[in-house]
Amino acid sequence: MHYLLLIYSNEADAPPPPATPAEAEAYMAPWMEYTENLKTAGVYLGGDALQPTATATTITAVGKTEPVFTDGPFAETREQLGGYYLLDCKDLDEALAWGAKCPIVNYGKLEVRPVMSFD
User: Based on the number of CB atoms within 10 Å of its own CB, is 79 exposed (0-12), middle (13-18) or buried (19 or more)?
Assistant: First the structure.
């Protein structure tokens, strides 16, 4: 079964960008290790970080005759979606076990959701 691990944190609380390549490597090390562990276990299907919410464009046509495009995220929230992993796990327990190991749980939140299948 496929599960989406949605990575949330508060962009306002994010640390400043790494000033040196060594700082960048140190920041990314736990993420790279986590991703490699998912791949080695054979559950990794994909994943990426997202650009900040300021780069988002929201589209809606609710109550309109034409789509309306708005710069920025859909809603003002305290935590923003910053990335995701797509996993192939045998069940929710396995997905939750992998989710608990994600570096974000130390300073943000991780939402684990089953992907709906339309076979």
Answer: middle
The torsion of the CA quartet 84, 8, 113, 85, rounded to 10 degrees, works out to: 20
What pLDDT is recorded for position 98? Answer: 98
Fold of 2-114: Alpha-Beta Plaits (3.30.70)
Domains of the chain, residue spans = 2-114
Distance between CA atoms of residues 33 and 1, nearest Å = 23
Could you tell me the two tokens for 3?
Answer: 């599960």
How much is the pTM?
Answer: 0.86
Residues 6 or more apart from 54 whose CB is under 8 A from it?
A: 72
Q: Which has the closest alpha carbon to 31: 110, 118, 93?
A: 110
Structure confidence at residue 73 (pLDDT): 66
Q: Which of 23, 29, 5, 12 is nearest to 95 (CA)?
A: 5
Q: Give 46's contacts (C-beta < 8 A, 6+ positions apart).
A: 85, 86
29-53 pLDDT, tens digit each: 999 999 999 999 999 999 999 998 8
